[in-house]
């Protein structure tokens, strides 16, 4: 049914959330890659393509908002157009407009609802 495995990049500095998210999505047959901060995301993106990025907003080195803006500014249109879903514990500090202006397509609040996570990842990768 699925043609090719979709590659998901999880940008999250909490290893607990990273591991949970990875397990949930691997059960759905996604190919999971992880980064601990926005800088690592950009380094990984320079080397390979991903179908979607799950982006924690509060990360060391480079936060999710800054990273999302950097991705949207990339020359490569395939990479600059990757769907980005913010994952944040303080969504109240941001409006959907804040996320959109940074180039973020959608967000999922923490604590993560894994059904919502799977639904949104499927929605954005099967476009």
Q: Tell me the domain tally.
A: 1
The radius of gyration is 13 Å
CATH architecture type: 3-Layer(aba) Sandwich
Give the name of the CATH superfamily.
Response regulator
Topology:
Blueprint: E1 7-11, H1 15-27, E2 31-35, H2 38-47, E3 52-56, H3 64-72, H4 77-80, E4 84-88, H5 96-101, E5 106-109, H6 114-125
Parallel strand pairs: 1-2, 1-3, 3-4, 4-5
Helix pairs in contact: 2-3
Keywords: Phosphoprotein, Two-component regulatory system
Modified residues (4-aspartylphosphate): 56
Domain Response regulatory: 7-125
What report would you give on this structure?
It is a single chain. A five-stranded parallel beta sheet has the order 2-1-3-4-5. By secondary structure, the protein is of the alpha/beta class. It has six helices and five strands, in the order βαβαβααβαβα. Helix content is 43%, strand content 19%. It has one domain (8-125): Response regulator (Rossmann fold, 3-Layer(aba) Sandwich), CATH 3.40.50. The modification 4-aspartylphosphate is found at residue 56. Keywords: Phosphoprotein, Two-component regulatory system. Residues 7-125 form the Response regulatory domain. This is Response regulator. It comes from Shiella aurantiaca.
């Amino acid at each position: 049914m699925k043609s090719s495995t979709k590659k998901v990049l999880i940008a999250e500095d909490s290893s607990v959330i990273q591991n949970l998210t990875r397990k949930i999505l691997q059960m759905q047959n996604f190919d999971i890659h992880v980064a601990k901060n926005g800088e690592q995301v950009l380094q990984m993106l320079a080397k390979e393509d991903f179908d979607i990025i799950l982006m924690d907003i509060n990360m060391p080195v480079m936060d999710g908002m800054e990273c999302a803006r950097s991705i949207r500014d990339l020359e490569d249109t395939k990479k600059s157009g990757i769907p980005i879903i913010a994952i944040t514990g303080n969504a109240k500090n941001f409006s959907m407009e804040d996320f959109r202006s940074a180039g973020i397509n959608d967000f999922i609040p923490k604590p993560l609802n894994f059904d919502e996570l799977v639904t949104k990842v499927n929605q954005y990768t099967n476009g």
